[in-house]
Design brief:
Pfam families: Glyoxalase. GO terms for molecular function: dioxygenase activity. InterPro entries: Extradiol_RC_dioxygenase (IPR052537), Glyas_Bleomycin-R_OHBP_Dase (IPR029068), Glyas_Fos-R_dOase_dom (IPR004360), VOC_core (IPR037523). With 311 residues, the chain is an alpha+beta fold. The protein has one domain: Roll (2,3-Dihydroxybiphenyl 1,2-Dioxygenase, domain 1), CATH 3.10.180. The protein has five helices and 16 strands. The strands form two sheets. An eight-stranded mixed sheet has the order 2-3-4-1-13-16-15-14. A hairpin with an 8-residue loop joins strand 3 and strand 4. It starts with 6 loop residues before the first strand and ends in a 10-residue tail after the last helix. The relative contact order is 0.22.
């Protein structure tokens, strides 16, 4: 049976790119590990944020479209993105959100306390303390490694057919069902980060793609060979799966599970340091080879962005 280690990355649609950078780098303290463009729309950034090393399981990516229409969170999407912080760090984050005038609420589920809030463009986020996951050594502003976000805690999935999505999580992706609470079913992968998936079992109205919504969730494959095995396995499990697509920092295959959520399976290698050094990742605009000849034009058309502390 195939088993994924957990989430590789999550990709969302947002608004103005500088507002996006200010929130995820400035407020949340994630590192901008790659500044590139959308392969299918090179006039749009594709921005990658993660821990200091850009490790799979920590990467949240964005297509920022300034002045685009607002989406609607609903069935067929990731509803909530969960980030994990070190034990004892939640009080720091509550104080930080209050100081930056970001409204938050708290809730307890599956014996864990969560701090829930929205980003600038309406994405639903939450923080949870856990022991697992490497310390994030990247430092910006007042955020130090003892409180810094380590990566994904997981995600809450909103499905148009929850029972079928649950079957896919267990029988295809290889997650283990841990239990049920209210209208949530919890699953876990074997990895140490990006490993907890909550599935809402109450069907919701259909989501609408736009600013403030998740485009897709990507699961981890160990390498190219493992991904080819995933491709065959997913196809044999009754899903239409794409050919392998080179995304420069990983290879990707895609399929839509039966609850209408777009799943990707992405390779851990080669990672984000193969075209920049680990020290300089995210500093320069990196273009796929096919767009390098258009660098000057693209540079002029893309909105300038700057990583800056909000402290």
């Amino acid at each position: 049976m195939m088993k994924t280690a957990g989430i590789h990355h999550i990709t969302a649609i947002v608004g103005h790119p500088q507002e996006n950078v200010d929130f995820y780098a400035g407020v949340l303290g994630l590192r901008l590990v790659k500044k590139t463009v959308n392969f299918d729309d090179p006039g749009t950034y594709h921005l990658y944020f993660g821990n200091g090393a850009g490790k799979p399981g920590t990467i949240i990516t964005f297509f920022p479209w300034a002045n685009a229409f607002q989406g609607k969170i609903g069935a067929g999407q990731v509803g909530v993105i969960s980030f994990v912080v070190p034990m004892g760090a939640l009080s720091f984050w509550e104080n930080r959100l209050e100081r930056l005038n970001i409204h938050y609420t708290k809730e307890t589920r599956f014996n864990e306390t969560y701090v829930l809030f929205e980003d600038t463009h309406g994405l639903q986020l939450e923080l949870v303390e856990r022991e697992d996951g490497d310390v994030n050594t990247y430092t910006i502003g007042d955020i130090t490694p003892d409180v810094a976000i380590k990566g994904f805690g997981g995600a809450t999935l909103l499905s148009s057919r929850p029972k079928e999505t649950a079957t896919t999580l267990e029988d295809v992706m290889g997650l283990e069902k841990l239990g049920e609470e209210g209208d949530l079913t919890r699953f876990r992968s074997y990895g140490d980060i990006g490993n907890i998936i909550d599935l809402k079992t109450t069907p919701l109205g259909r989501g609408e793609m736009g600013v403030g919504t998740v485009h897709h969730i990507a699961w981890r494959a160990k390498d190219d060979q493992d991904q080819l095995e995933w491709q065959e396995f997913v196809g044999n499990s009754g899903f239409g799966v794409t050919e392998v697509r080179d995304r420069n920092y990983f290879n990707a295959i895609y399929f839509k599970e039966h609850g209408d959520i777009l799943f990707e399976i992405a390779t851990d290698p080669p990672g984000f340091a193969h075209d920049e050094s680990p020290e300089t990742m995210g500093e320069n605009l990196m273009l796929p080879a096919q767009y390098e000849q258009h660098r000057e034009k693209l540079t002029e058309s893309l909105i300038p962005i700057t990583v800056r502390s909000v402290d």
